[in-house]
Amino acid sequence: MNTGLKPVWAGRNMRLDPFRLPQVVSYATRDDYGHVTFTIDHRGAVIRRTLEMSGVPAIIALPASAFRGVAARAMEDPDGNVTVTLELLHNDPMLSVPLLVAHDLEDVAADWRAWADAYRLPMLLIESDGVARTLEESLGAAIKTLPAQDRRKGRVSTTRRPRFLARRRAGDLGLRLVIGGQEIISRE
Fold it and tell me: What totals of helices (H) and strands (E) does the chain contain, helices first?
């Protein structure tokens, strides 16, 4: 588990609902860059930052495609308590958007999937080395795929027939059906 790569905003519990957009989240950073406000909607995120040293406001609008994915990070403190975070991961860590900080693991997987589906982004896992990998890359060694099994071989006559009809013999009735009559409605 990750112990030293804890984001600044991971100090308190928070949860944004992926089904209730738009939402606004703000937190005070502990560095020299000042106060940050995130506005999240179905198109992406808007980051508003007021620089503390100069007081200059900076507004950055990022579409959902600017993010690498929805990343999950699990961190363990020295007491053994686990903190799980979800974030919209950007290549620049200052532009990553927090989505969830929780100490219990109840709904983390459901929110992770819902955020990934909402923004059509891959689900990423930030491992202990700090590198974000997709689930297939990080769990690929643990999950082994077996070759596909061949289907049960049946008779050729049952290839396109439902199972209950396959028991009946295909054939003809032995007589020819002819329908004759006069037209009742005139087509003129």
Answer: 3, 10
